[in-house]
Write a structure and sequence with these properties.
The protein contains 1 helix and 14 strands. It is α+β, with helices and mostly antiparallel strands. A 3-stranded antiparallel β-sheet has the order 1-2-6, with no helix packed on it. The protein has a 3-stranded antiparallel β-sheet with strand order 5-4-7, with no helix packed on it. The protein is globular, with a radius of gyration of 28 Å.
């Protein structure tokens, strides 16, 4: 009888230790998640930062052989002085006369340095119809250090000596020089051309430029396309750093 009591006591203690051991093991992933949150809080908190702002925007409806699209463009500003913006997103919403949504197009932009501005241009769907209105919204959920090496201030990419030529007033080409004034090699350089009439954006075009090494300067010759009727054009560039 004593042997049985000893046996059952041993079993109880054994299972008690096993249960305790299991409880300890479940605390480990909780602690890991806690560490993850702690690491995240060491960065830049989105709730404490201002979202990007749309400085200016505009669009035109392009009708090509009965197929209609929206050609839109604009400029976005990072109002924060102590953080950069990664993956800012512009949403372009086309609406019918009754306010119903005709289409919604998203455009992810290059990173934006503190207190900097970058421009964008693209085309979007409007379901083969002419929208009554087009709205622009911008958002960003990823904030980063003001010293982030992957974010290139636009003043580090110099555009100069630009000119515009056209053939019969239809297809336009744009030439100029582009210089990498930073101390890092640049990749995926986006060239943006904004078209304005009466000081308002009426459309835009985007093209890619070859990689530029630190301090390198080269020429560009881009587009040769139909563009909006305009009395002013602006050319700017943005980029990521090379890997």
């Amino acid at each position: 009888m004593l042997k049985k009591m000893f046996f059952f006591s041993f079993i109880a203690v054994f299972f008690g230790l096993s249960i305790t051991g299991c409880q300890k093991s479940t605390s480990t992933p909780r602690f890991s998640r806690g560490n993850s949150i702690s690491k995240k809080s060491d960065g830049i908190s989105g709730s404490e930062k201002e979202k990007p702002k749309i400085v200016e925007s505009g669009y035109r409806i392009v009708d090509s052989y009965g197929s209609k699209t929206i050609e839109y463009a604009g400029t976005i500003e990072n109002p924060n002085k102590d953080c950069g913006l990664r993956f800012p997103k512009v949403t372009i919403i086309a609406k019918n006369k009754d306010g119903s949504i005709l289409s919604s197009n998203e455009h992810i932009l290059d990173p934006i340095a503190p207190l900097d501005k970058i421009s964008f241009a693209d085309t979007g769907d409007c379901k083969e119809k002419t929208p009554a209105s087009v709205e622009f919204k911008v958002d960003c959920k990823t904030f980063t250090s003001p010293n982030d090496k992957d974010i290139v201030p636009t003043n580090q990419i110099k555009i100069s000596n630009i000119s515009e030529t056209s053939e019969n007033g239809n297809e336009y080409s744009y030439t100029g020089e582009i210089e990498n004034k930073s101390d890092s090699d640049l990749r995926n350089i986006t060239l943006i051309i904004l078209f304005k009439k009466d000081n308002k954006i009426v459309g835009g075009k985007a093209s890619e430029i070859d990689d530029l090494e630190a301090g390198e300067k080269t020429t560009f010759d881009t587009l040769k396309e139909d563009v909006p009727k305009h009395d002013e054009y602006q050319i700017s560039a943005s980029s990521w750093l090379k890997d």
